[in-house]
Design a protein that fits this description.
Layout: E1 2-6, E2 16-21, E3 31-34, E4 44-48, E5 54-57, H1 59-68, E6 75-78, H2 80-83, H3 89-105, E7 108-111, H4 118-125, H5 134-149, H6 158-165
Parallel strand pairs: 2-4, 3-6, 3-7
Antiparallel strand pairs: 1-2, 1-6, 4-5
């Protein structure tokens, strides 16, 4: 399988990675990412540090990388959209058959529900918690939880497998 090494960086530093093919018998510790692709558009880029080539990714995956990237150390990730050659039907079918073992062997499975809506961040961060009335705080929490469960992630059939197989 391929594993993506997401290099460290801060804030809006250029995203850099390398893709390595690794034998399943000698897998390093890695994390698998469970997320939704979003629209079938690939307007964002992440730079492969070995080849210098740009890898086209979705907006949602770009946002996930921005948040999941560590500041001081690399992170090893398995992400279907990048680690499987989406233009090779033979590879795709072989990798899909291996997905249960890919998720089982992952050190952990990260779930990316997407970026928080701007208005949600503004509402929850606009005034200190101790100044909010119980009612206002309760409404904000209810709205936040509702937003989480409205995520497209919960509508994917694959999430059952990804969730159950996670360690």
């Amino acid at each position: 399988i391929r594993i993506l090494r997401l290099y460290p960086g801060k804030d809006r530093d250029l995203l850099k990675c390398t893709l390595s093919e690794i034998r399943t018998r000698s897998l390093p510790k890695y994390e698998a990412l469970s997320y939704t692709w979003g629209p079938n558009e690939f307007p964002k880029r992440i730079t492969d540090g070995d080849s210098g080539a740009d890898i086209a990714i979705t907006n949602n995956l770009f946002d996930a990388f921005q948040v999941l990237r560590l500041e001081e150390e690399s992170r090893l990730l398995w992400i279907d959209a990048v680690c499987i050659n989406q233009n090779d039907d033979v590879e795709k079918s072989g990798q899909v058959a291996m997905m249960s073992s890919i998720y089982q062997n992952a050190d952990s499975v990260l779930v990316w529900l997407g970026s928080a809506p701007e208005d949600h961040l503004e509402t929850t961060n606009s005034e200190p918690v101790f100044e909010k009335s119980h009612s206002a705080l309760s409404d904000a929490i209810t709205a936040g939880v509702g937003t989480i469960f409205e995520s497209k992630w919960f509508t994917r059939v694959w999430i059952v497998q990804e969730y159950i197989l996670a360690k």
